[in-house]
Amino acid sequence: MSEDKIIVTISGKDRVGIVAEISAVLAKYEVNIEDIKQTIMQGCFMMFLLGDISQSKYSFKEIKEAVSLSGQKLGMEIWMQKKEIFDKMHTI
Amino acid sequence: MSFFNEKSIIETINMIRVHNLDIRTVTLSLSLRDCCCEDVKETGDKIYEKILKYAKNLYSYASEIEEEYSIPIINKRVSVTPISLVGESCKNPDYIYLAKVLDSAAKEVNVNFVGGFSALVEKGCTKGDIMLIESIPEALKQTQRVCSSINLASTKAGINMNAVKKMGSVIKQTAFLTKEQDGIGAAKLVCFCNAPGDNPFMAGAFHGYGEGEAILNVGVSGPGVVRSAIENLPKNADLGEIANKIKQTAFKITTTGELVGRRMAEKMGIPFGIIDLSLAPTPAIGDSVAGIFQAMGLEHAGAHGTTAALAMLNDAVKKGGIMASSYVGGLSGAFIPVSEDAGMIEAAKKGVLTFDKLEAMTSVCSVGLDMIAIPGDTPDSTISAIIADEMAIGMINKKTTAVRVIPVPDKNVGDYALYGGLLGEAPIMKINGLSSETFINRGGRIPAPIHSLNN
Fold first, then answer.
1. Chain A contact for B63, CB < 8 A?
2. Which of B67, B100, B426, B428 has its Cα between 20 and 30 A from that of B342?
């Protein structure tokens, strides 16, 4: 189901352990990572992660809280949104 | 495996984070027709229970959706059947009491505003309509969250000039009774021509005659997003290219609004009504319709060319919106409230945006004269005449027009009215000092125009 897909967007200063930290949290919360893309944009590290929460026993809210907390620990800006918003906005 | 595009993700996040894209309101539109009783207390009890039953989860569901999509939902609101109809059957009618019931229900379910302290009197007034209109000043003084609207004219019926005359003094009195807050009562009172029954925006939202039992309407916004999109075009882009960019942006805004609206309706277990795609500015820097005019190349809102720019903007917004949703409704277009738009406030302060220019702009914007502070000693008949002009524009052009002016007690041109929050601040604008009294005192009804006879 498309409403079970999430996009996590992480941005900030590049450092060791970003992917490790985020994927550890997602694993703990039973989120399956389907795709990851990384890029450097205007000197800023950006990572986009597509996840599936359909197998998780945790709620969207619980997962988002955990992901946000790890973003704070890393000192990075983190957004977690249902993928639907991007599909609707950018597809005719 | 499903596909995602990082450019699209960045664009969406920037629209929300940098350019203030938000869902301006999710509005539960609720029929109160089954609340009519002979006893006003019983009517009040039924209204209170019904609002609580349907709206109890409005706030929490909206908060959940905000989390899911990381898009702010600024207001949660309720609109109801025009209360003049609901209270009219009572043997002991007391409209102020019913306004207080609406206010306490709104507080209980934690919505920002409840709209529908309204009457539709474009052709004539029933006794309930007259009682409601006369109770407006006191009702808006004694409540915080109740909004009132009166439909005074339509293309089909003409203009009810007796009611227009009455509303001049009602607006003045409403402002006077809330003079400690610069007449804020009048900011919650709007006069309409061709009022839509599915508008989710305040102060004019009410649950129209032809609507179902309960529906969910949504209003989106995003002038900052449109301004930024235009600014990013090449400097020599022609107006056709700008119109196209506005359409594309409106499409993106509308799809987001519809997603939120449908999700809300699903959670609440009621049908989705319409999405109102209105560029509704806020006092936040950049979130301004006046800023769009500047991005198009005008020195300031009010410059010659502003009406043309607004006409193109209003039209392109609708065209983009209808591509994105089958159910675009309400007021959809571009609002031009003065006090709520930082660019408009600045233009008015500098004296380059005048009342007369605003009136011309209302012939092509989506609503009308909105949130304009005028001198507190403006005669009642002049306020009525301002309303009559605006109603005439709507009636002849088959469009919705509205008047929300605030005669700020004890203040004059050069002073400021301060409201705070989304209502913002406004310099008191100069209006024409000539008398309209004899014209307004004639009363009666301005007949419907020839093109109303299209049966």
1. no
2. B67
| B263 and B179 belong to one structural domain | no
CB contact under 8 A, A90 and B256: no
- CB contact under 8 Å between B11 and A48, yes or no, is no
- Flag whether residue B69 sits within 8 Å of chain A, measured between CB atoms: yes
Q: Is residue B114 part of a domain?
A: yes
Residues of A in contact with B5 (CB under 8 A): 86, 90
CATH (domain of B184): 3.20.70.20
Does ipTM exceed 0.85? yes
Mutate to test the interface with B, among A89, A91, A92 (most CBs of B within 10 A): A89
User: B168: domain range?
Assistant: 25-57+77-193
Whether residues A5 and B6 touch (CB distance < 8 A) is answered with: no
pLDDT tens digits, one per residue of A34-57: 999 998 888 889 999 999 999 999
B70 in contact with chain A, both atoms CB, cutoff 8 A: yes
CA distance B292 to B223: 7
Number of residues that this document lists for chain B: 455
Q: Note if the pTM is more than 0.90.
A: yes
The 10 Å Cβ neighbour count of residue B239 is 13
Gap between the Cα atoms of B153 and B185, Å rounded:
22
pLDDT digit string (tens) for B54-110? 999 999 999 999 999 999 999 999 999 999 999 999 999 999 999 999 999 999 999
Q: Does A90 touch chain B (CB under 8 A)?
A: yes
- Regarding whether B314 and B170 lie in a shared domain, the answer is no
The dihedrals phi and psi of B246, each to the nearest 5 degrees, come to -60, -40
Residue A41 with chain B: CB contacts under 8 Å: 10
